Amino acid sequence: MNTFILIAGPSGVGKTTLLQRLKKDFGLKETLSLTTRERRPTDSDECYRFVTDEEFNAADLVERTMFNGHQYGTSTQDIDNSDILVADLVGCKMI
Asked: CA angle at residue 41 from 21 to 6, to 5 degrees?
């Protein structure tokens, strides 16, 4: 596992704003979270990796959470290939 920046906090505190600034100013790469929720028309391949429940449960995850009946998590592979991880407080405690 490489060294990475963990940005954690509750919803609405500015995690995404900080993430975008770090990516822009320093060229850092963020993790791509897995989710079992359905893709929305506005979703790009850069926001989530959309997987089935079976794929999610088989993944080697460093953190996971449930939100609105859908699973979200970060795989070990994504951590190894990234510089920044954004997590909620539940995910941060797991890490």
From this structure: 30
Distances (CA, A) of 94 to 5, 42, 43, 63, 84: 15, 30, 27, 6, 16
**pTM, entire model:** 0.79
Entry field: residues in the chain? 95
Contact 18, 7 (CB under 8 A): yes
- Tens digit of pLDDT for each residue in 24-43? 999 999 998 899 999 999 88
What is the C-alpha to C-alpha distance for residues 66 and 1, in angstroms, rounded to an integer? 25
Amino acid at 40: R
What per-residue confidence (pLDDT) applies to 74? 92
Yes or no: say if 73 and 65 are a contact pair by the CB < 8 Å rule.
Answer: yes
* Residue 20 clears pLDDT 60, i.e. is over it: yes
